[in-house]
Amino acid sequence: MMGKQMTRIRLSCFGYIKDLDDIAAAGYDCAELHIREIMGFDDGEYKNALGQLKACGIPAEVFDNPIPLDSHVSDASFDLSFYRDFLYRATDRCARMGARYFVFGNGKARSLPVEGDIHGATKKFDDFFNMLLDITAEYDITILIEPLGKKLSNIVNNLPEAVGFIKKFGKPNLKTFIDYRYMVELGRPLDEISEYKSYIKHVHLDNPLTVFPERVVPRLDDGFDYSPFLDALKAIDYKGIISVEASVFKDFHSEIRDGLRFFEAHGIRPAIG
């Protein structure tokens, strides 16, 4: 009897520098790191982190949230000059770690006011975002605008809006990705994946039935049918990374391995396996 046909896709797991060895040992192709952690290091700590990444044996190509999560770009207190310097430093550090993509979720940071000087707030956000694109382009890093749920952001809530956002800025280092949780939350049709496949460069996956911000590793017995989504990715011959985005663990070491068993059962293996 022939075995189940397997698809090779690069699989990643969210983590911190301390988690790199566990993620590599579990069998993931790569790790996804947090810019806020990288920017919290002094020079010595950064040098050590860079060494740990090189020693673990897997790359980190995707880094999350280039500005602090509690910032708000359209606020008068948001200093574009300060953040220009911040972004140069963040981009330089992450580029030296192998970054190819920055995920721009930052729901609070990007949300726009619904009253007052909406035009001025929109212009300030656009100025910031153009600055972000220009700085990261110098380091060959692409920004991935994340379609978020409406409770988190009042702009870019689905793939069509993300593509409109990309076309508005018109820069080659701006693409989008899928966080499947929000496709489920908003009832978005899976045929959008094939329609906008050329713009989709990354995927986040967790159990979408948990209440945000609790995010857990997807499992075979968690009561959700992931097959239609994963089949849609296979149908477009998806070449990017699928990253397990979990924030709550009872046992990190074993649960990230559960994630790989989950993918195996759905006919997906790490590219390096």
Task: Summarize it.
The chain is of the alpha/beta class and 273 residues long. 41% of the residues lie in helices and 15% in strands. It has one domain (7-269): TIM Barrel (Alpha-Beta Barrel), CATH 3.20.20.
What can you tell me about this protein's structure?
The longest helix is centred in the middle third of the chain and has 20 residues, at 118-137. This protein is an alpha/beta fold. The radius of gyration is 19 Å and the shape is globular. The strands form two sheets. An eight-stranded parallel beta barrel has the order 2-3-4-5-6-7-8-9, surrounded by five helices. Helix 4 (80-96) packs parallel to helix 6. The protein has one domain (7-269): TIM Barrel (Alpha-Beta Barrel), CATH 3.20.20. The model has no long low-confidence stretch (mean pLDDT 96). It has helices at residues 20-26, 35-39, 43-56, 80-96, 107-110, 118-137, 159-169, 180-186, 191-195, 227-235, 252-265, and strands spanning 7-8, 10-14, 30-34, 62-64, 101-104, 142-145, 174-179, 200-205, 241-244, 268-269.
Key descriptive features of the protein:
273 residues, alpha/beta, TIM Barrel, eight-stranded parallel barrel, two-stranded parallel sheet, 41% helix
How many beta strands in the DSSP annotation? 10
What low-confidence regions span 5 or more consecutive residues with pLDDT below 50? Answer: none
- Which shape, going by the Cα principal axes? globular
The structural class is: alpha/beta
- The CATH architecture would be Alpha-Beta Barrel
Q: Tell me the CATH superfamily.
A: Divalent-metal-dependent TIM barrel enzymes
The arrangement of helices and strands along the chain is EEHEHHEHEHHEHEHHEHEHE
CATH names the topology as TIM Barrel
Spatially, the strands of the biggest sheet line up as: 2-3-4-5-6-7-8-9
